[in-house]
Amino acid sequence: MISTKLRCVTLLAINTFAVFAFSVPSAVWAAAADSQAAPTPIRIPAILVLAGVVSFGLLLGQVSLFGLTLGSAGVLFVGLIAGHFQLLVPGGTGEIGLAAFVYCVGLGAGPTFFRSLMQDGRTLALLGAVIVASGTVTAWGVGKLLGLPAELTGGVFAGAMTSTPALGALTTALPDSPDVAVGFGVGYPFGIIGVVAFVQILPKLLGRDLKSAAAGDPNAAATQIIRKLVEIRNPAIVGKRPGGVPMLEACNCQTPRVRDGELLRPTPHDFHFALGQQVMLVGPERNLAGVLDMLGTEVEGADQLLLDAERQRRQIVVTSPEFVGKSLKELHLLSTYGVTITRIRRHDVEFVPSAITRIEFGDMLTAVGEPENWPEVERLAGHRPSTLDQSDILSLAIGLLMGISLGMLPVSIGNQSIQLGLAGGPLIVGLILGHFGRLGPIAGHLPRSARMLLMEAGLALFLASAGVSAGGNFVEVLRSQGIWLCVGAAAVAIVPLAVGFLLADLVMKLRLLKSLGAICGGMTSTPGLAAITSATDAAEPVIAYVAAYPIALFLVTILAPILVELLR
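Structure tokens predicted for Transporter:
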């Protein structure tokens, strides 16, 4: 870990370097260049420039100021400095990085993208779409009103929406325009600061506290699963099966085991409740107390019994099409194999499933039941945990090839012919592969660590290339456009926030936490979501963010090049 002192010294050097570069009049640089006595400029190898820009940029991105960090965008700003001094990076670097980045983004968003459109997330997905659309309209109005160049306006739009895929789509469609990256560099700080400030200030203006708002969050503590041993005392449920007790399913609780002497055995498929019976109750901590009171009373001193039962389970990783997309009710695991699925871990989140919960590729199922039937259930599920830790390089290469090829195909819109480019093509292919998990021999799964590494590396390469290519014109554009460029960037960042909240609050009647989470998703702002989660542990804003983010990410990538065409 780099020491704080070293970080400060390095950042001081970078800032001094930037201030010196941007403050010295261009005439001085020109005079120095024309002077016979001036030393010959040092030629730095392009690969060394690339490594330096990425290294110093990531270092800059880690610095926190008032709780905000630039993250990977620090590479862009260091690249702008390097480009100002006419330094170069290897050709093709940005294109390779962009394709890898958006492809991995698609793989990660795929499992939730189409589900958010088809299920309960449709309202939140619509909110995300409206936020992006309002940002597009605002950017168009700002560009027309201030007379900004179309390419510069498109960059401001991508920056205000904090969307590097949109920046990638623009640089692919406009490879010879440095104004795109300049606009992104101007709009990005307004996008970051605007969303974070909005989610922190709005609750105060409304007289609301995020922690108190979380008290009624129906998804709070959803990932904290606990177990209790309960003795049945309620005559109203005697003779009923667990599926016949609505409160169990409504509260996402299960009774997977029943006490038999000093053992907790899996409940058989024909199990019925009886007075005095002792069952293991599993569910979210928030819901468990109410269900326990409904069933009977807690059995004290059962910790060791519950611990022994926890060891008698099997974790099954799903990779088979026979399981993927089916609900637990459709699989009939309990009646056929005597196996109950008590928990599912999906995307690092663990929850108790209900009968209608559908299985997704890569789900890790916690199963209890008859041990002799586990091998058959594992076979049907395609249980191969090693597949989740293996990176299929061939599938990765073929997926990128398909995405790049799709991006190069012309798409006719009226009399115009556009291309999806290196941002749109790989993104769409990644979304499809991520959703289905596999298409024939092509795997749509990368281990999370591998996907995140490739995504961050690709993003850093792309931002380094974009920054260096735009750095030569950055200062000149700021001088020519003046303060109005910053005013326009602020408007593009603020108007979608206001429109999104008014729609969520007045029309959709969403709770505050859900509204804020969806607004962060619509603005594709992870820092904004982090500001919410730092104030509350509620899961509601995270779920809303996940529902709104994929459609917003897709739309902002597609609309950015269209915006530029409309302004020309």
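Residues 1-41, 217-223 have pLDDT under 50 and may be disordered.
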